[in-house]
């Protein structure tokens, strides 16, 4: 993950998502997904806990990276395909070599498509959860660590706070060092995306900043990222 291009190829996706976060029609429609009692609890308690709980336990499904064939109980093979739908993401085709049963997992970059399918991994979860929190008038953005995970940050009391809808509360809220401490993450760049800007937020997530700087080497890429993002 050292090449600029491996970062840049995600920029259009996240820019597109950030633009959708400013689209009131999309926000109105994702807000309607949330049951009234969850909205009321969230407002009454002034906490995102009820929303996080509902989203993880009652609303979304997790898509494993590898599926078992439902007939043969063997691991299925995964292929990536462009489905010509004009999305920035490749469709996953899971296939069983024994009985040829197939499952297709399109990786949508449209919030409302994810809201319909209600399934995915961290990117689908954070894309949709971010939209729902934005719909509650709490400004929220997407964060990607470029080590295969992404989550959200919400602007609460004028500070960007870590929020990860894929984790259990309270780890899902304001536990920024969790990944480094528990998953052994070795960050180089953790980036946060808004419609008009990209921000290097790595220092929010590391207690090993010197090591991060060492990994980055002499030439920090942040300015280059900003330029690419601006043009994306
Ligand atoms: Zn099979």
What does this structure look like?
This protein has 232 residues and is of the alpha+beta class. Helix content is 41%, strand content 18%. It has ten helices and ten strands. The protein has helices at residues 4-20, 24-31, 36-45, 49-59, 111-117, 122-135, 178-182, 202-205, 209-216, 222-231; strands at residues 61-62, 77-81, 91-95, 102-105, 119-120, 140-144, 150-156, 159-163, 191-193, 198-200. The strands form three sheets. It has a five-stranded antiparallel β-sheet with strand order 8-7-6-9-10, covered by helices on one side. Strands 2-3-4 form a three-stranded antiparallel β-sheet, with no helix packed on it. Helix 2 packs across helix 6 and helix 5 (111-117) crosses helix 6 (122-135). The longest helix has 17 residues, at 4-20. The chain is globular, with a radius of gyration of 18 Å. It starts with a helix and ends with a helix. The model has no long low-confidence stretch (mean pLDDT 94). Bound molecules: zinc ion. Zinc ion binds next to loops.
How would you summarize the topology of this molecule?
Layout: H1 4-20, H2 24-31, H3 36-45, H4 49-59, E1 61-62, E2 77-81, E3 91-95, E4 102-105, H5 111-117, E5 119-120, H6 122-135, E6 140-144, E7 150-156, E8 159-163, H7 178-182, E9 191-193, E10 198-200, H8 202-205, H9 209-216, H10 222-231
Parallel strand pairs: 1-5
Antiparallel strand pairs: 2-3, 3-4, 6-7, 6-9, 7-8, 9-10
Bound molecules: zinc ion (ZN).
